Amino acid sequence: MLQVRDLRCARGGVPVLEGVTFDLNAGEALILRGPNGVGKTTLLRTLAGLQPPLDGTVDYPEATGAYASHADGIKTALTVTENLTFWAQVYGLTVPDTVFAAFDLDGLRSRAAGTLSAGQKRRLGLARLGVIGRKVLFLDEPTVSLDAFSVRNFAGWMRDVHLAQGGCAVIATHIDLGLDVPTLDLTPFVAQADATGGSDEAFL
Ligand SMILES: Nc1ncnc2c1ncn2[C@@H]1O[C@H](COP(=O)(O)OP(=O)(O)OP(=O)(O)O)[C@@H](O)[C@H]1O
């Protein structure tokens, strides 16, 4: 479902990672590991098509990918239900009722999203993944701000719903999600520096 071959990617014009190669079949996930700054976000953004690779290829079926970072992208004046309905409609879908329980949002359906706590907002941000129908997910630290119960809940949705229904996911996380999936340490793929540095305001 996802094929990555000899990928080389940059941030701020400076090569960060090179030679990244892996495959994911339907129902499989991969956890990205590595120290701060190794290039996990850069790789995820490149995989998702938000920036071009310097070299190599990324293949997955057209219009099946979605990228989510810890920036929530929540509309604060809308309720939880209205937020999910909005996102579902963008993708021409309706909200499955099961998504509220899956992300522990049942008691918060009518709350204005702006009044949610940080962790509740994060759960709403993640619930978006359950309404947009995208099969190939690129997730950057999805469980930031979540308590242990909510981390388990998210892992349960990932395993029992998303992967069980034939999705796949690449997840950068410093937190152990308790998922029985392979990890890829990016440290061996750090690119040889060939520039003095640079910055890219698009990322600031
Ligand atoms: N706007 C920018 N301009 C130039 N370099 C940047 C910019 N943003 C990040 N970098 C650098 O690019 C490299 C890769 O950053 P990236 O955010 O991909 O790492 P990461 O593995 O996701 O880190 P973390 O675990 O801290 O989230 C780092 O060395 C970082 O300092």
Automatic annotation (TrEMBL):
A GO biological-process term: cytochrome complex assembly
UniProt entry tagged with the keyword Transport: yes
PROSITE patterns in the cross-refs: ABC_TRANSPORTER_2
GO MF annotation terms: ATP binding; ATP hydrolysis activity; transmembrane transporter activity
Domain called ABC transporter: residue spans: 2-202
Tagged with keyword Transcription regulation: no
InterPro entries for the chain: AAA+_ATPase, ABC_transporter-like_ATP-bd, ABC_transptr_haem_export_CcmA, P-loop_NTPase
UniProt-recorded name of the protein: Heme exporter protein A
